[in-house]
Every structure is written in structure tokens, then in C-alpha cells.
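Form P-L/3: holo structure prediction, ligand flavin mononucleotide.
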Amino acid sequence: MAGLTDSAFRRLVKRHGGCGLVVTEMVSSEGLVRGIDRTLEYAGFTEEERPVAVQIFGGDPGKMALAAQVVERLGADAVDVNMGCPVPKVAKNQAGCSLMRDPERAAAIVRAMARAVAIPVTVKMRAGWDDREMNAPELAQRLEGAGASAVIVHGRTAAQAYSGRADWALIERVARAVAIPVYGNGDCVEPDEIVRRVRELGVAGVLVGRGALRNPWIFAQAAASAAGRPIPAVSAAERRGFLLDYIDLLLVERADEPADVSHVAGREHWVIGKLRALCTWYSRGLAGGSHLRVAVNHAESIARLRAEIAQFFSSPTRP
Ligand SMILES: Cc1cc2nc3c(=O)[nH]c(=O)nc-3n(C[C@H](O)[C@H](O)[C@H](O)COP(=O)(O)O)c2cc1C
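OUTPUT (holo model):
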């Protein structure tokens, strides 16, 4: 998830257990091919995150094939194509969700990539463009023919963006339409929902987005539930620890960059921005969560950020 599921976040999620594949934030095929530092940073991962897929976006089959080769050289376990992003900056360049309206181009991209690399090429798509064009089953068939190894379906249309509910009946139809594994995605926020959907809906697995930002323990909890064990509760100390560990990992990542010097924003500024982004989600569902959001949004230094987080989770009225 762009801006959120960076390598540090993914490592922490994996350390808490229960999580299989993780996927990087989407990265530009153009940026990968040109070797742009920031793009390569977004595509970066560590050994403890494996198995890991790098997700790329773009609309040009030749460039996507070259970008897939860069991903393969980076050592990723799979390369995933974004066919779901509705953000205009991506969609207007015949990439992201626009590819759902252009099956010819979508298939050409997958074919070129599958020929160019030995690692699996997977596709993340939506249910369709809008409620008149719910073509995920047909597109999945076409992409299977073009060499896709698996598809992930977010059960909303591009027109819906994030409104309404994900259509899991449609996801099931996709799973029945193709022989390759189909992974469902959308609205899994409770561990039991993950287990039920994997067991009952004929999908190979479930991908969790926002639910993991709110509750990075969701995978460990789902694994416990699947094994018939009680779902472990998460203590305030663990919740505090996650955020503090995240700060530490981010700081190490940019250790070679200067901290903020007078008016020049550097490492500290970047880490604070990352924490603000995560806490927008992480605070949801917590008693008094809005206090955490406000406190984090007002913190202007790492020391202040740490103190606010420690204070929020040590208050006896908080979870
Ligand atoms: C802030 C944000 C960033 C996202 N970035 C990506 C992305 O880079 N690639 C992608 O495939 N999906 C991205 N998504 C979509 C999610 O992966 C997921 O498909 C969607 O949120 C539905 O699943 P969920 O209900 O489990 O969150 C993003 C969603 C949000 C809210």
C-alpha cells in the first residue's frame, strides 16, 4: 500500500507471525528501468520479509518487461502488476485500473513480462471498471492465457474506489473461471473473516490491506483461529512497542541521511511523516484513538513522538 507498507512495516508484521506473502508498495516501471534511487528504495526488501512480491505499475509492455527484469535481479520472489489503482496520475497513463478497460494491452503486458522473467508474474485487479463492466472473470482468463501465475482480486470496481463493500461473490466467480490461484481482497478486518473466506469461498488465500494497518497482529490472530486456538489479545504495551519499533527501524533505514538541520527537513521529518500516515489507520478502533492521531500530528521531533506514543498507551483509560 503506497506510502504505508514499507520494508520496516512489513518486517514488523512478519515478526508478529501468521503472515505469508507480502507485497511492496506499487513502484513505477519507468522509475525502475531508469534506476531512480527513490523508486529502487520503494522496491527494496530484506530477507526476513520473504516471500515478497514487488508490485509495479505502467502501461507499456516493453518497459514493464524490463522493469520485471529489474525486480528479478533484486531477488524478489514474484512480480505483481497493478491493474487496480484508480489514482489519476497512474490511471491516465494506461496503467493501474485503466488496464481493466484495455484487456488487449493488459494481456500484452503480462505476456511480455512472463517471457522476460523466470519468477511468477501475478496481477492485482479490481472487480471491473464500474458496475456495468464487471469483467474480472474474463480478464483473469485472458491473463491466465498470457502467462499470469496468479491473480488477486479486490472486489470493488474502479468507480467505487473505496466506497461500498467488496463483492466476494464476484471474487468466487473469478476463482471458478481460472485454473491459476485466485486470492481475494477487500474488507477483511477481523481474523475470523480471513479464515472463513479462505475455507468457504474457494480462494487460494486472502490479502489484507487496511486491516493490517489497524491491526498488524491480524495474521497471527487468523493463524491461531485457523488452528482452533483462541485469538490472542493484543496488549497496550505491544501496541506501543510496534510504533516505537517502527520508528527505530525507519531511523536505521535512513541512518546515512542528516537529521533535520534548522529549516532543512531530513530524516526526522521523514520518520514523523511516516508515523502520521500509519497512525491515521493504526488509531482506528482504539479507545481514544483520535487523541493518538492528534498527538502524533502535533509532534515535531522524534523525542516528542516517542513520548506521546508512550504516554498514550500507558494511560489506564486507554486499551
Ligand atoms: C492508502 C492506500 C494505498 C494503497 N496502495 C496500494 C498499492 O500501492 N497497490 C495496490 O495494489 N493496492 C493498494 N491499495 C489498495 C489495497 O491494497 C486494497 O486492495 C484495498 O484497500 C482493499 O483491501 P482492504 O479492504 O483489505 O484494505 C491501497 C489502499 C490504500 C487505502
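COMMENT: The CA atoms of residues 108 and 157 lie 22 Å apart.
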